[in-house]
Amino acid sequence: MNRRNYIGVLMLMSSGFLVTLLVFSCKKNEPDLLTNTCASATKSAISFSKDVYPIIQQNCMSCHDTRIHSGGIVIENFVQISESAKIGELMNSIAPANGYPSMPKGGKLTDCQISTIKNWIIQGINDN
Question: What does pTM read for this prediction?
Fold first, then answer.
């Protein structure tokens, strides 16, 4: 189909269809303002098992499990993750400060994920 035919197809479409097409095409790139999936924004109590552990599992364990233990750091379970949180290592790695390397390697956690982990630490590093 050459450019002229393509423009002709657009000209044949109803204006309502074109507006709908443009609205939905643009909308998919905008954040959904009605649905906030950030645990720290929607919950007063952050759950280790439901909120924190999935973030660690998805973003950290590929390098920091008992098999690979990059940098000698293993964070596979609550005890290991809570110890890392207590000494400040966890927060300093996901929100780099004082010479800590930024984690995860080659990427960055979202602001929501960082906020969720930070609020879990502030709430007392609970195993819930």
Answer: 0.67
